[in-house]
Design brief:
The protein is built from 15 helices and no strands. It is an all-alpha fold and 342 residues long.
Length: 342
């Protein structure tokens, strides 16, 4: 209980710090003017496009799950993404990342460790995909210098964040490959670490570890690997298109590839484990808008507030509709995730 409170306090402080820098020097009258200055037709289109990534992520997930079960229902994969993001939006600590695989494992009667393993692979490829797109953007800078009017320090920060993301993704990839291709050695290390614990706990952890490693079978199929890489680009180019349409709704016209760094920064901010991505998403979105595109500070704040609100409301409505239909409460899912993380 004490650890939980300490974690909540730290997360809350982190959120407050990011929000302070987000709202600093804001003229609220101008922000309100910008909030209402959106193209209604494109605003409706953005709302309709919001759940699309849940579908593309769901379809991509199939190529990770196929090694555990070949006939996983698409609707269950879509629902797993929807309820996972809903939990992430409502509760701190990105608990939805754990709820998502646990929900699907229950629905499809699959091993929990296996499905959790697929989500680790998914996040690794998300980082690699967006880092690759960011790299393409940065390499194009000498080719189209007239387009790059942002602040020099912003591009320096992009290089830094890109290196961090690639490094983290590489560590995850190496770790995952080591788990799969050196299974027995890995399990021996796990057994050694579990020696101080009771037999019951050790057996449960070992069982989950074995299931988790099975979830990495994906790496054994070159065909699935190539399809999955292609679908990862489909997922993230779709998300970039979503933000591109949103920019047009505010009459901000930019080349499509200019949304690569912005989406990368938003991904970094969204990964910070605050409730509803509040703080991290806002700060990194404003930073990208003002430093990369020289957008007015108040417009940047207004755009960020609107796009975050759309994502939160639409995703939660979809998630709540699925949970209502199945007779499951959000707190039941929260307990499911907390129980498994203990």
């Amino acid at each position: 209980m004490k650890k939980t409170w300490i974690r909540l306090v730290l997360i809350s402080l982190l959120m407050v710090v990011f929000l302070y820098f987000f709202f600093r020097s804001v003229e609220w009258r101008e922000v309100f003017d910008y909030l209402t200055g959106i193209d209604i037709r494109l605003f409706i289109l953005v709302i309709l496009l919001t759940p699309v990534h849940l579908a593309t992520r769901g379809y991509r997930w199939k190529y990770l799950l196929i090694h555990g079960k070949k006939d996983v229902k698409f609707l269950n994969m879509f629902a797993g993404n929807a309820v996972g993001f809903t939990v992430t939006f409502i509760f701190p600590g990105r608990l939805g990342e754990l709820v998502k695989p646990l929900y699907l494992a229950q629905k499809e009667k699959m091993s929990k460790g296996f499905v959790i393993g697929t989500v680790v692979v998914e996040r690794t490829f998300d980082l690699f995909t967006m880092s690759f797109l960011l790299g393409l953007f940065l390499l194009s800078k000498p080719v189209y210098p007239s387009f790059f009017q942002g602040k020099k320090e912003a591009f320096s920060n992009l290089y830094l964040w890109g290196i961090v993301a690639v490094s983290f993704a590489t560590v995850l990839l190496i770790f995952s490959l080591s788990l799969y291709f050196f299974k027995e050695k890995t399990l021996s290390v796990v057994r050694f670490v579990l020696k101080p614990f009771s037999h019951k706990i050790s057996e449960k952890v070992l069982e989950l570890s074995q299931e988790f490693i099975q979830g990495l079978k994906f790496f054994h199929s070159v065909g699935n690997l190539l399809i999955y890489i292609l679908l990862s680009f489909v997922v993230w180019l779709g998300i970039i298109f979503y933000y591109w349409v949103f920019f047009f709704a505010y009459n901000v016209s930019l080349p499509f590839f200019f949304l690569f760094p912005y989406t990368f920064l938003v991904m970094v901010g969204a990964s910070i484990p605050t409730p509803g991505m509040v703080g991290g998403f806002h700060y990194f979105s404003k930073f990208g808008l003002t430093s990369l595109f020289n957008i007015d500070l108040n417009l940047a704040v207004g755009m960020t507030l609107v796009v975050h609100a759309i994502q939160l409301v639409v995703t939660c409505l979809v998630g709540y509709a699925i949970l209502w239909k199945e007779g499951i409460s959000l707190f039941q899912l929260k307990k499911l995730g907390e129980k498994e993380s203990q």
